[in-house]
Amino acid sequence: MKKRMYIIPIFIPHLGCPFKCVFCNQNLITGQQKEITEEYVRETIETHLKTFPKNAEIQVSFFGGSFTGIPLDKQKLYLGIAKEYLDKGKIDAIRLSTRPDYIDSKILENLKRYRVSVIELGVQSMEDDVLLKSRRGHASEDVVKAVNLIRQYHFKLGLQLMIGLPGDNLEKSLNTAYKIVELKPDFVRIYPTLVIKNTYLERMYKEGRYRPLTLQEAVETSKKMYIIFIKNDIEVIRIGLQTTENINYGKDVVAGPFHPAIGQLVESNVILDVLKNIMEREKLRDKKITIFCNKNYLSTVVGQKKVNKNFLEEMYEVEVKFKTSDKLFGDKIVICSDKKIIRFSVTEFIKNNF
Ligand code: SF4
Q1: Does domain 268-353 have CATH number 3.30.2320?
Q2: Measured from the CB, is residue 24 less than 6 Å from ligand 1?
Q3: pLDDT at 128 (0 to 100)
C-alpha cells in the first residue's frame, strides 16, 4: 500500500527579493521578517517528526517562492540540515520551490549534492503579456529553459500556475495549460489569483484597474485546466491556496475567488460533467438511480450543499441516492438503475471521453 506523505514545511522568505510581482506582499513583509536560523530549521523538523506516525513518507519542503535565489551559503546551510535527516533515514525526500530564472547548471548541481529530489517552479502563466502585466520579471522562454535543464538533471518537477492574473482570461489560461502539457511536468498546482493586502494588486483593484475572477469563473477555468492535465497524465496536486490564519476573508484576502475548499468545488464539478455525460450516453431515464462510491469520495461526488444530487434530480427528473461501498477505491463509481449497472473510474472516463 502507498505510504501517506507528510510534509515538513519550512518557509524561507526571499529577503531582499528584487522582484515586485503584483500579487505578492513579500517585499512588504520581508522588512519585518527575521532571517531563518539553523536552530529554527532543526526545531521545525524535530517538532514535526514527533507528530508523524511510523512508516510515514516524510518530505522536508523549503517554500517561499525563490529558494535558489537566496545566497548560496544560506542554501547550503538549510539543505545541509535537511540532508543530515535524509542521510539518517529520518526523512525520505527534500523538495523546494523557486523561480524559473533562478535555475542554472551550477544551482542544480548544488541541489543534487544535497540530494534534493523535487523542484517546483512558480510559472504562473505561459503568456508573456500576463507575465509582464503581473511584473514577474521573467518570460515564458525562461520557463522552457529551466524545465529542460531540470529534466537533464532528473529532478521530479512540479509547476505552479495562477489564473486570473492581470491581462489573463480563459483562453490564455487554457493556452498556458496546453503549453504546460508540452513541458510534461510530473504535477501541477493551480492557484486562482487572490487580492492580498499590501500588494500592488490591491492598489490596482482599489483603483478599478483590476477585476478578480468570481468564484464561479475560477471554478470553471480551473475545471477546464484540470481536465486538460488529467487527459495528459499530469497530476493536479492542489487547486487554491491553503486557508491559514491570514489567508482568509477579513484577514489578508481583500478580494478574489477565495473558498476554503475550492479544490473540492472543482473536482465535484468535474464529476457532475462526467455523470451528465453518462446519463446522456446511456440514456438513463429510470425513475431511481443509486450512485455508489468510497466513503472518502462521497462528499465530493454529492457536491457541496448536495449540488450534484440536486442538479441531476432536476435535470433528469430522477431520484438520485448516494451510497458508500468499501469495495470501491479512489475515484471508482458505480451507477445502478433498474436496467443497468455502470462502473467507471472518473479519471479513466475523462481520459477516454472528454
Ligand atoms: S512572488 Fe515575486 S515578489 Fe514575491 S518573493 Fe517571489 S519573486 Fe519575489
Answers
A1: yes
A2: yes
A3: 98
**Mean pLDDT value of segment 60-66:** 87
Name residue 97's beta-bridge partners. 120
At 160 the three-state DSSP class reads: strand
Please indicate whether residue 19, judged by its CB atom, sits closer than 6 Å to ligand 1: yes
Q: Which atom of ligand 1 is nearest to the CA of 25?
A: 4
Most confident of 64-73, 230-239, 243-252: 230-239
Banded pLDDT at 30 (limits 50, 70, 90): very low
End-to-end Cα, the chain, rounded Å: 30
350 alpha carbon – ligand 1 mean position (Å):
35
Alpha helices in 88-199 (DSSP H): 105-113, 128-133, 140-152, 170-183
User: From CA 99, how far away is CA 241, in angstroms rounded?
Assistant: 18
Residue 191, CA distances (Å) to 48, 51, 218, 240, 269 in order: 26, 29, 9, 5, 17
Residues in the chain: 354
Query: Which of the four pLDDT bands, split at 50, 70 and 90, describes residue 65?
Result: low
165 lines ligand 1 (CB under 6 A): no
26 CA: nearest ligand 1 atom: 4
Which residue's CA lies nearest to atom 6 of ligand 1? Answer: 65
Where residue 7 falls among pLDDT bands split at 50, 70, 90?
A: very high
DSSP class per residue in 304-340: GGGHHHHHHHHHH--EEEEEE-TT--TTEEEEE-SS-
Q: Given the CA of residue 17, which atom of ligand 1 is nearest to it?
A: 8
- What torsion do the CA atoms of 69, 62, 188, 235 make, to the nearest 10 degrees? 150
Domain ranges of the chain: 5-259, 268-353
Second CATH level (architecture) for the domain 5-259: Alpha-Beta Barrel (3.20)
Q: Name the grid cell of 34.
A: 527575521
Residue-wise pLDDT for 175-187, tens only, equals 999 999 999 999 9
pLDDT in tens, 123-143: 999 999 999 999 999 999 999
- In this prediction, what percent of the chain has a pLDDT beyond 70? 96
CB 15 within 8 A of CB 67: no
